[in-house]
Design brief:
five-stranded mixed β-sheet, alpha/beta, 3 helices
Protein backbone atom coordinates (compact mmCIF):
# COMPACT_ATOMS: atom_id res chain seq x y z
CA UNK A 1 0.00 0.00 0.00
CA UNK A 2 2.16 2.76 -1.24
CA UNK A 3 1.21 6.12 -2.63
CA UNK A 4 2.50 7.31 -5.99
CA UNK A 5 3.39 10.97 -5.47
CA UNK A 6 5.03 11.78 -8.75
CA UNK A 7 5.62 9.76 -11.85
CA UNK A 8 8.43 11.70 -13.47
CA UNK A 9 6.60 11.76 -16.75
CA UNK A 10 5.83 14.83 -18.77
CA UNK A 11 3.21 17.22 -17.47
CA UNK A 12 -0.21 16.79 -18.95
CA UNK A 13 0.17 13.05 -19.51
CA UNK A 14 -2.66 10.84 -18.31
CA UNK A 15 -1.93 9.08 -15.00
CA UNK A 16 -1.61 5.31 -15.12
CA UNK A 17 -4.72 3.36 -14.11
CA UNK A 18 -4.59 1.52 -10.78
CA UNK A 19 -3.96 -2.17 -11.42
CA UNK A 20 -4.81 -3.68 -8.04
CA UNK A 21 -8.31 -4.46 -6.75
CA UNK A 22 -9.62 -2.81 -3.57
CA UNK A 23 -10.13 -5.77 -1.17
CA UNK A 24 -11.70 -3.86 1.73
CA UNK A 25 -15.35 -4.05 0.53
CA UNK A 26 -14.97 -7.76 -0.26
CA UNK A 27 -13.61 -8.49 3.21
CA UNK A 28 -16.42 -6.46 4.80
CA UNK A 29 -19.07 -8.40 2.89
CA UNK A 30 -17.41 -11.72 3.79
CA UNK A 31 -17.34 -10.84 7.52
CA UNK A 32 -21.02 -9.84 7.46
CA UNK A 33 -21.92 -13.15 5.77
CA UNK A 34 -19.95 -15.14 8.36
CA UNK A 35 -21.70 -13.30 11.21
CA UNK A 36 -25.11 -13.94 9.62
CA UNK A 37 -24.25 -17.64 9.25
CA UNK A 38 -23.23 -17.90 12.91
CA UNK A 39 -26.41 -16.17 14.06
CA UNK A 40 -28.73 -18.36 11.98
CA UNK A 41 -27.22 -21.74 12.99
CA UNK A 42 -29.67 -23.40 15.42
CA UNK A 43 -28.45 -24.23 18.89
CA UNK A 44 -27.83 -27.95 19.47
CA UNK A 45 -30.38 -29.22 21.97
CA UNK A 46 -29.58 -32.54 23.63
CA UNK A 47 -32.48 -32.71 26.02
CA UNK A 48 -35.37 -35.02 26.66
CA UNK A 49 -38.79 -33.40 26.94
CA UNK A 50 -40.59 -34.44 30.12
CA UNK A 51 -44.02 -33.55 31.43
CA UNK A 52 -43.23 -32.64 35.02
CA UNK A 53 -45.98 -32.03 37.59
CA UNK A 54 -46.62 -28.48 38.74
CA UNK A 55 -46.82 -27.79 42.47
CA UNK A 56 -46.89 -30.33 45.29
CA UNK A 57 -49.50 -33.06 45.14
CA UNK A 58 -51.57 -33.91 48.21
CA UNK A 59 -50.31 -36.88 50.23
CA UNK A 60 -51.76 -40.20 49.04
CA UNK A 61 -54.58 -41.64 51.12
CA UNK A 62 -53.84 -45.26 50.22
CA UNK A 63 -50.69 -47.18 49.45
CA UNK A 64 -50.07 -47.28 45.70
CA UNK A 65 -50.20 -50.61 43.91
CA UNK A 66 -46.74 -51.54 42.65
CA UNK A 67 -46.00 -53.77 39.67
CA UNK A 68 -42.38 -54.93 39.41
CA UNK A 69 -40.92 -55.85 36.02
CA UNK A 70 -37.52 -57.54 36.17
CA UNK A 71 -35.41 -57.90 33.03
CA UNK A 72 -32.89 -60.71 33.51
CA UNK A 73 -29.38 -60.81 32.00
CA UNK A 74 -30.58 -62.87 29.01
CA UNK A 75 -33.58 -60.60 28.27
CA UNK A 76 -36.16 -62.72 30.13
CA UNK A 77 -38.98 -60.53 31.45
CA UNK A 78 -40.47 -61.32 34.86
CA UNK A 79 -43.76 -59.63 35.91
CA UNK A 80 -44.24 -59.74 39.72
CA UNK A 81 -42.37 -63.04 39.94
CA UNK A 82 -44.01 -64.69 36.90
CA UNK A 83 -42.03 -65.17 33.69
CA UNK A 84 -43.58 -63.55 30.64
CA UNK A 85 -43.30 -65.91 27.63
CA UNK A 86 -43.27 -63.29 24.83
CA UNK A 87 -43.64 -59.61 23.99
CA UNK A 88 -47.36 -59.93 23.22
CA UNK A 89 -48.11 -61.16 26.75
CA UNK A 90 -46.10 -58.24 28.18
CA UNK A 91 -47.99 -55.75 26.05
CA UNK A 92 -51.32 -57.27 27.10
CA UNK A 93 -50.40 -56.81 30.78
CA UNK A 94 -49.22 -53.25 30.09
CA UNK A 95 -52.53 -52.50 28.33
CA UNK A 96 -54.39 -53.73 31.43
CA UNK A 97 -52.28 -51.41 33.60
CA UNK A 98 -52.82 -48.44 31.25
CA UNK A 99 -56.60 -49.03 31.13
CA UNK A 100 -57.00 -48.58 34.90
CA UNK A 101 -58.20 -45.17 36.08
CA UNK A 102 -55.66 -45.07 38.93
CA UNK A 103 -52.66 -46.71 37.30
CA UNK A 104 -50.35 -48.75 39.49
CA UNK A 105 -46.69 -47.79 39.70
CA UNK A 106 -44.52 -49.84 37.37
CA UNK A 107 -41.02 -50.44 38.73
CA UNK A 108 -38.62 -51.58 36.02
CA UNK A 109 -35.58 -53.37 37.43
CA UNK A 110 -33.00 -54.31 34.75
CA UNK A 111 -30.11 -56.66 35.43
CA UNK A 112 -26.65 -55.12 35.21
CA UNK A 113 -25.67 -57.42 32.33
CA UNK A 114 -28.82 -57.15 30.20
CA UNK A 115 -28.61 -55.62 26.71
CA UNK A 116 -29.90 -52.07 26.47
CA UNK A 117 -32.30 -53.02 23.67
CA UNK A 118 -34.27 -55.35 25.95
CA UNK A 119 -34.84 -52.64 28.58
CA UNK A 120 -35.53 -49.96 25.95
CA UNK A 121 -38.10 -52.28 24.33
CA UNK A 122 -40.02 -52.66 27.61
CA UNK A 123 -39.93 -48.90 28.21
CA UNK A 124 -41.03 -48.13 24.63
CA UNK A 125 -43.94 -50.58 24.90
CA UNK A 126 -45.05 -49.01 28.18
CA UNK A 127 -44.91 -45.52 26.74
CA UNK A 128 -46.69 -46.48 23.52
CA UNK A 129 -49.51 -48.20 25.44
CA UNK A 130 -50.06 -45.23 27.78
CA UNK A 131 -48.42 -46.29 31.06
CA UNK A 132 -47.64 -43.03 32.87
CA UNK A 133 -46.26 -44.16 36.23
CA UNK A 134 -43.02 -45.96 35.39
CA UNK A 135 -39.64 -45.76 37.05
CA UNK A 136 -36.26 -47.49 37.06
CA UNK A 137 -35.34 -49.29 40.26
CA UNK A 138 -31.94 -50.57 41.33
CA UNK A 139 -29.72 -47.89 39.81
CA UNK A 140 -27.18 -48.34 42.60
CA UNK A 141 -25.84 -51.46 40.87
CA UNK A 142 -24.63 -49.35 37.95
CA UNK A 143 -22.43 -47.02 40.01
Amino acid sequence: MSMNVGSGSAAGADPEPMMEMNMTPLIDVMLVLIIMLIITIPKANHSVNLNMPVGTPPPPTTEPVVVTIDVDFDGTIVWDGQTIPNRDALEQKLMNVAAQADQPEVHLRPNKLVAYSAVAGVMASAQRLGVTKIGLVGNEQFQ
